[in-house]
Amino acid sequence: LNTNTVTIQVADGNYAEAVAANREFLNGAVILRGNTAAPGNCVISPAAGAALSIYAALSVEGFKFTPANGYGLYVGANGRVSVTGAVEFGACALGQVTAAQGGIVTLSAAYTISGGGAYHMQALRGGSIALSNVAVTLTGTPAFTTGFAVALIGGSLQMVPSAPFAGGATGPRYQVEDGCSISIPAGVDMASYFPGSTMGGPKPGYDAGRAFRNLLNNGSGRLQLGPAGAVADDAYGLHNRWYALTQSGSITP
């Protein structure tokens, strides 16, 4: 790119093509721009896969993402994406913003969520997502089945604003696995920070050699997550995989 900043200007329309950037741009910067005044006029809606699949450094602004059966914005290894202008996330069945395998997403402009999916934002396998001091507006009470904010397998989420989300959603507010992090401003209650209709919360990790051993504590710190009443034979998974295979009578934890 010879030190230049190149802007790819996309006209208004409804595009069925998935967009992919699979290699680094050399010696310069790239901006992918739709309609920043009305992102809903410039829609990326592929039939499958991610609307944007990015493995390079890129700035994105001015689009609405509505993949029929895939991800909205997916950022993988070596990917560094900054959302620098207004965007809109419509329905994305597999999730709206994903940072995986060390990919980095920075949400640095106000945006809108008008549809649901598995999650709004998910960081996993060393990926990270940062929400700068901007407002996020939810319309129509979208549903998120896994959680609004999810951190798995070494992923991290960093939320800078103290109250960024306006509007409601249904589903768990967040899910965070052992060894991952969700950072919110000091003094803010995690129970009410993210939109959602249920709490969600910590979940046990699943890291290779430890996955099927008897772990004493759950990620929440509680000794057991199973029912408090009596259990009969073959009750697997009652206390972190401590179980009674056979016994002469029911056991009450």
Q: Which whole number gives the mean pLDDT?
A: 86
**Which shape, going by the Cα principal axes?**
globular
Strands ordered across the widest β-sheet: 1-4-7-10-13-16-19-22
Could you describe the largest sheet, including whether it forms a barrel?
8 strands, parallel
- In the predicted model, the low-confidence regions spanning at least 5 consecutive residues are 206-215, 235-241
Output the radius of gyration.
Answer: 21 Å
**Measured distance between first and last alpha carbons:** 65 Å
Number of helix segments? 1
Question: Would you report the number of β strands?
Answer: 23
Strand content: 35-45%
Provide the helix percentage.
under 10%
The helix/strand order is: EEEEEEEEEEEEEEEEEEEEEEHE
Q: What structural class do helix, strand and pairing data support?
A: mainly beta
Write the layout of secondary structure elements.
Elements: E1 5-9, E2 13-15, E3 19-21, E4 29-33, E5 42-44, E6 52-54, E7 57-61, E8 64-65, E9 71-75, E10 80-83, E11 88-89, E12 95-100, E13 104-107, E14 111-113, E15 117-124, E16 128-131, E17 136-138, E18 144-152, E19 156-159, E20 165-166, E21 172-177, E22 181-183, H1 190-193, E23 198-203
Parallel strand pairs: 1-4, 2-5, 3-6, 4-7, 5-8, 6-9, 7-10, 8-11, 9-12, 10-13, 11-14, 12-15, 13-16, 14-17, 15-18, 16-19, 17-20, 18-21, 19-22, 21-23
